[in-house]
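I'll show a sample.
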Amino acid sequence: MRPGRIVVGVSGASGAIYAQRLVTHLVAAGVETHLVVTPLGVRLLRDELGMEGLDLAALCGGEAGGPCPENLVNHRPGDVGATLASGSFRHDGMAVVPCSSNSLSAIATGQAQHLLHRAAAVCLKERRPLVLVHRETPLSRVDLKNLLAADEAGAVVLPANPSFYTRPRTVEEVADTVVARVLDHLGVEHDASPRWDGAAPTADRGGQPRC
C-alpha cells in the first residue's frame, strides 16, 4: 500500500540529483510530499542542478519556473513551528537526501539546528521510518561514530552508493538505483529501477543494453 505522506529533507552534501529524482518519483506517484531544504541545500541545487533559488517545479522533474504540483508542500527551514516539528503531524516516513555530515551529526546527537533536524528528531521519537542518504567519502572516525549512533537511534543509514548490475546508461538511471532503495524503505511502490531477478539485463528489461 502506497504511503500518503512523505517528508524529504535536502541538506548541503553533494548529490542534488538524488533529491531531485526522489521528489520526482514521489510526486509522480501521487504521494503528498513535504519538503524542507536548508540554505546550503539551496546552494547545492544551484551548484549541481543550475537552479536559481528553490525551483519546486524543476525539483520534481518539471519545467523550470513552472507551477508547483499540488502534492508538493515546501516548508521554510527556519520555521520551527511548522507542522513537521510536531509529532502530532502524521506521516509515513522521512528521507534526508543528501544527508551532509553536519546534518548527520545533528540528527545522531539530537542537536536540532533547524526544521530539517527537528523533523528528523520527530521521526525518531515517534518511531517512524527515517532514511539518511549520507554522501561523504572517505569517512572520518567522527562520521563512523555518528553513523552508528544514528543507526542505534532507529534511523536507516543508506549511503549514496549506486549499483551497476542493472547497467544504467544515464546519470538519472544511476541515481535511481539509490532512490529505489530509499523508496523501498519508505514503503512506496515504484518502478524507479529494475529489481535483480538473477538474470543479466537485456534490451527488453527496462531499456537496458544487451550483454
